[in-house]
Amino acid sequence: MNDIACRTTRGPARETDTRSGGASASATSAACAEVEPRACDMPRERLRDAGPGALSDVELIVLLLGTGLPGHNVFDVARSLLARFGSLRAMLDAQPEEFAGVRGIGPAKAAQLLAVIELARRALSEKLRERPLVDSPGAVEDYLRLLIGGRPHEVFVCLFLDTRHRLIRSEESSRGSLTRMAVYPREIVRRALTLNAAGLIVAHNHPSGAVKPSASDRRLTRVLRDTLALVDVQLLDHLVIGTHETFSFARNGWD
Length: 255
Hints:
Radius of gyration: 23 Å
Strand content: 15-25%
InterPro entries: MPN, RadC_JAB, RuvA_2-like, UPF0758, UPF0758_CS, UPF0758_N
CATH topology of the largest domain: Cytidine Deaminase, domain 2
Protein name: DNA replication and repair protein RadC
GO molecular function: metal ion binding; metallopeptidase activity
Number of strands: 7
GO biological process, one term: proteolysis
Pfam family, one: UPF0758_N
CATH architecture of the largest domain: 3-Layer(aba) Sandwich
C-alpha cells in the first residue's frame, strides 16, 4: 500500500481625578461591582422570557462568562472576544492560548468557553450514533465543520462505521501545515480492521476556506477507496470541509 501526501492549494487602568470631586478608584470598583450583576441579569431574564434563540451572540457569551472586570464589564469582554476572533465560528475553533490575549479572559473563563465548545462537539457526536450516517449527511457535515472547519492547518479525520453505517468512533488520522498533509492509507486500513469497521467516511479541511479538491485529494481518494476495498471495508465518502461549504466526492461521482 502506498503512502500519499495530500497537498492543497490554497493599558494600564486610568486613574480617577479626585481633586474636582471625581469618584475614587475604590468607589469606581464598587460601582462596577454593583452594576455587573444587573448587566448579566438582563440577558438571563430575556432567555427566561423569550428563549435562548432570542439572545444575540454577545448576550449568550455574557451568560457564559458571568462577570467582567472593574471598569470593563462583562458585555465589553464579550464584545472583545467576538472582535478578537471575528466570528463565532472562529471562536469555536480557537486554541486555549488564543484566549489569553483578550482582556478579561483568564484561565478560568477560557476553560469555561472550551468546555462549552467540547460539549457541543460531543452532543453532535452522540447524535451521529443514533442513526445510520448515510441517512444524516447534514449532521455529519455539521459535526465535521465544528470539529475541523476553522483549523489553521489541514487535519484528516476518519469516521469508522459498523455494518449498519452507525458511528463506531471518530479519530483524527493526521494533521499538517496550511497547504500540505501526509495521509497513510495502510494506517487507516489497520485502524479500520482493529475497530471491526465495515465502512468509513473520511474528511479533511482546507484552511483557505475553498472546497475545490486538488489533484492530490483526488489521487488520495482513489488509493484509499481501492485499498479499503481489498479488506472489504467500504469508503462511503470523502468530504472536503471549507468555511461555509462542503465538497462530497460521493455526491460528485467520485470525480
